[in-house]
Specification:
The structure is a homodimer of 347-residue chains. Chain A is an alpha/beta fold and 347 residues long. The first copy, chain A, has helices at residues 14-32, 46-52, 60-64, 83-97, 159-175, 192-204, 217-226, 238-251, 292-304, 308-323, 335-345; strands spanning 2-11, 35-41, 69-74, 102-108, 123-129, 133-142, 150-158, 179-184, 211-216, 233-236, 259-263, 271-275. In chain A, helix 1 packs across helix 9, helix 1 (14-32) runs parallel beside helix 11 (335-345) and helix 5 crosses helix 6. The structure holds 3-isopropylmalic acid (2 copies). One 3-isopropylmalic acid sits between chains A (87, 242, 276) and B (187-188, 218). Chains A, B: Keywords: Lyase, Manganese, Metal-binding, NAD, Oxidoreductase.
């Protein structure tokens, strides 16, 4: 029997609740589809930090490298460890070390879920650059504490970094409707964003079957609310993708439904799958977190591993659950009840 | 009779159509309220650029300085002049030269206007930093044209710049509900945004009557769609404010309703009032642009000039118009018809 090795990183807060739920669903889907998943769980988290002084051991990255994939819950518990420490100590280094440069986030309404928009006919795939740009971490402060203080934060875009994410976007667009939206702000950021636009233009010659349109980030944010059905594949920088995917989560009914995949397209290192939501310390371990985003992220993991039928089975079970109203209304059903419904719908 | 001198900059495209409409309304409101407006119009625009090689004359800024206020339509016509040239040649230099550091944008639904959200009870005042930050224009490119190319764009935040916009936000919050939302992304941008958060914290001690909450930009974008009624005054950096105010325009029914004021709070130079929408070359001079955003911006100008009663009169006339369904549905009514209705509702 084919076996995949999976590193589980439940992390903090509700990350633990939803990872347990997702894992139960994934294991059952695997056995129904004739393969197996072999999990190793690591306790890296803010609690781990308080005991050990780091979010993961020094050899953490090398420990994860041999796995076929990583399933992550959520990282952060600001009252225990500053976000700037916890995220830069666990989540962000994994994305960068394993060159998971494509962060993919699907936005559509699950059956039975009512979003905040009057319109409900949309199916958007956001692709966010995940390794550089506005979150490069380059910057500094001078004259600290004085009236004269200045803080700078530098966005760094490399041709390789921009080209590979755009190429990934063109490929995804080709596999879907052939329509690609590229998001910049070149009327106000004339170095980074003009560079991005130039590379988009140049690549478009290689993909004559893809119709690419450039939007400014402000106009795109408005469009996702005014005319989400006019969009298909959207590709954006680290920051712009971050903003647009929370907006995407909002229009799909909330963070309880927003799944994501941090993909290394070259498969030179493991990819990582995680719900978009955070650790939500206020509701941690109360058994009320919605596990659907985590389960959907797990389905994306199965898809990435090539287990397309099992992935489709999980998505169908999620859809059958929300269609019955279970897990469809934020805060209504308990984690257990939603998980049980998905498990039974698996077949 | 009290007379205010106003510089009119109709600019490009529908900027000209809506400025003419707004001006008719403002003149009538002034005469009904016993003061007068003395306009001088300047043709600075992309057409002006094509004839003269610059968006405005070298002494443009000094020409505008003596005026009591500036009313602007829209700038830009990309097929004639690159946006990076036209905006950096006219709109952005005015904002910076006249230290119009507070860009104020109100977001609420006018009577009779249906927005894209199911929810309609919100009244948000966005305050955007307007002179520095992510749109500082600092950056560069190395190894241009090679595989090794890198583009950098540096956000520059000064203590003075951050402090004054936050102070302005605290004052506005104090004058409204006492609730202020400050928007950053300090978990991923640890120089600029941590700096902003620190200054927010420090200032909050001076405003014990204001309850300030920090949100990350991604969470705030989602909140504006999921729970817009939970927000009142929102203060954000240049880029984040730019994005949030287009989102604000979207939830209020579209850019045809989004007004804005570029304020110099010290009154050391004129402030500028402009609709949020652009020049929309595709519908320029067809007589179908919605003038409501421009008229509303004009009402903000009257307010700024201290003509509160006249400002309220204009807002009431706009409300009476949209309540009758005129100008309430994007694309339905002609510019003339909407303007005529507002004029007659003035009394
Ligand atoms: C927690 C934070 C650093 C992270 C990000 O911005 O990448 C999150 O918002 C996300 O979208 O995955
Ligand atoms: C045209 C552009 C430079 C401008 C900006 O980003 O400031 C516009 O989007 C706005 O919001 O006023």
């Amino acid at each position: 029997m084919k076996t995949y090795t999976i590193a589980l990183l439940p992390g903090d807060g509700i990350g633990r609740d939803v990872t347990a739920a997702a894992w139960a669903v994934l294991e059952k889907a695997a056995s129904l589809n004739g393969f197996s998943l072999d999990a190793t769980s690591y306790p890296w988290s803010c609690d781990y930090y308080l005991e050990n002084g780091s979010m993961m051991p020094a050899e953490g990255i090398e420990t994860l490298r041999p796995f076929d994939a990583i399933l992550l819950g959520a990282v952060g518990w600001p009252s225990k460890v500053l976000d700037s420490v916890s995220l830069h100590g666990l989540l962000l280094p994994i994305r960068k070390a394993f060159v998971q440069y494509a962060n993919i986030r699907p936005h559509r309404l699950l059956p039975g879920v009512q979003g905040p928009l009057r319109s409900d006919g949309f199916d958007i795939l956001c692709i966010r650059e995940n390794t550089e740009g506005e979150y490069s971490g380059a910057g500094g402060r001078v004259h600290q504490g004085t009236d004269n203080e200045v803080a700078v934060e530098t966005s760094i875009f490399t041709r390789k970094g921009v080209e590979r994410i755009l190429r990934f976007g063109f490929e995804q667009a080709r596999a879907r409707s052939g329509k690609l939206a590229s998001v910049t702000k070149s009327n106000a950021q004339k170095y980074s964003m003009v560079f991005w636009d130039e590379i988009t233009q140049r690549l478009s010659a290689e993909y004559p079957d893809v119709e690419v349109t450039s939007y400014h980030i402000d106009a795109m944010a408005a469009r996702m609310v005014m005319a989400p059905d006019s969009l298909d594949v959207v590709v954006a920088s680290n920051l712009f993708g971050d903003i647009l995917t929370d907006l995407g989560a909002a229009i799909q009914g909330g963070l309880g439904f927003a799944a994501s995949a941090n993909i290394n397209p070259d498969r030179s290192a493991p990819s990582m799958f995680e719900p978009v939501h955070g650790s939500a310390p206020d509701i941690a371990h109360l058994g009320i977190a919605n596990p659907i985003a985590a389960i959907w992220s797990g389905a994306m993991m199965l898809e990435h591993l090539g287990e397309t039928a099992a992935a489709a089975r999980v998505m169908a079970a999620i859809g059958a659950t929300t269609a019955r109203g279970i897990g469809a209304i934020p805060g209504k059903d308990r984690t257990d009840a939603i998980t049980a419904s998905v498990l039974s719908a698996l077949g």
